[in-house]
Amino acid sequence: MFELKENDDICRQAQNSGTFYLFHNFSPFLQKIRGKYLVPQINATEIKKILEKFRQNEQRIEDSVLIGCSGDCLAYFALDLGSMERSVLESGLEGSFTELQQAFFQLDEKDTHLLSSAQALLRWHDNHQYCSKTGQPTKKNLAGSKRVCHSSGIIYYPQMSPVVITLLSDGNRCLLVRQASFPRGMYSALAGFCDVGETLEETVRREVAEEVGLEVDSLWYSASQHWPFPNSTLMIACHAMVQPQETEISVNKLELEAARWFSLDEVVEALRRDPRSSKQEDGTFSVCLPPKQAIAHQLIQEWIKNQLCQ
Ligand SMILES: NC(=O)c1ccc[n+]([C@@H]2O[C@H](COP(=O)([O-])OP(=O)(O)OC[C@H]3O[C@@H](n4cnc5c(N)ncnc54)[C@H](O)[C@@H]3O)[C@@H](O)[C@H]2O)c1
Ligand SMILES: [Mg+2]
């Protein structure tokens, strides 16, 4: 990856043997076969044919960005054809440009990872076309790993915002929260963006105090994931404990709609429930939890495992 990022000539060669994922205004090109989404992988020759068919300059392939590399050094690229007519492209390519969020939870792990990195990188380039100091256009290197303002020499690198997500426990129960924007009935672990200069531990303690008014006693790291919604974040997942005698919650209603402690049985039952069928006969929604693709799900699974091992 380093050579591909740093050397435009090597990257150009890799484009000729690489695999491309197409987007249109940040929506990936997908095919739906027997109810399942497939992510077509297109090679450089096919991309050039598509560009030729739609009377686009072959050079447009150089607008693509590098999003990864396979074990046997096959490079993956993403190309956004947003300036072209969407419906014409779709009928020519026999598939459709689908909102990432719509397909995300039905795709294979490798595809979700590549498509979310691709969308984040394409968005970053779209938002950084001008130097914020000089106002002059910036130019991307071939791989898309940076943009340079040739007037000031400033180099811009793609960024993600760090977010901590914490599953809080009092030893017997775990704390789950919901924002008004979550799907009905859905509860998740408590999340918050890192402030500049903060350590992850400080963010966990501050967010827990701000959102539910509790004091974290101890915490430990679990895992991380890139999360593309609504913008590119690096989710850093932690477990944390409060003292069992200090569990009274004070919900910050500006940030959360609700927060409460859940027993092991309640969590196990909620995890079994399909979020799509959590609506009850009286119109209310049963508690449901994030799907397996979200790191919150992994934290909850780990907590259950720990409780069962006690
Ligand atoms: N993958 C998962 O399992 C999972 C679960 C829960 C939340 N999340 C994600 O975590 C993210 C953060 O959670 P939250 O909304 O509770 O955060 P939060 O508690 O920090 O509240 C969001 C507010 O923080 C401010 N903010 C500070 N820095 C920001 C930045 N860089 N970008 C946007 N807003 C910023 C804004 O005022 C925003 O309204 C969300 O984007 C959400 O999608 C992911
Ligand atoms: Mg939050």
Automatic annotation (TrEMBL):
The keyword Endoplasmic reticulum does not apply. InterPro entries: NADH_PPase-like_N (IPR015375), NudC-like_C (IPR049734), NUDIX_hydrolase-like_dom_sf (IPR015797), NUDIX_hydrolase_CS (IPR020084), NUDIX_hydrolase_dom (IPR000086), Znr_NADH_PPase (IPR015376). It is an enzyme of class 3 (hydrolase). Its EC number is 3.6.1.22. Its cofactor is Mg(2+). Residues 158-285 form the Nudix hydrolase domain. Pfam families: NUDIX (PF00293), NUDIX-like (PF09296), Zn_ribbon_NUD (PF09297). It catalyses: NADH + H2O = reduced beta-nicotinamide D-ribonucleotide + AMP + 2 H(+); NAD(+) + H2O = beta-nicotinamide D-ribonucleotide + AMP + 2 H(+); NADPH + H2O = reduced beta-nicotinamide D-ribonucleotide + adenosine 2',5'-bisphosphate + 2 H(+). Keywords: Hydrolase, Magnesium, Metal-binding, NAD. One of its GO terms (molecular function) is hydrolase activity. It comes from the Eukaryota. This is NAD(+) diphosphatase. The gene is NUDT13.
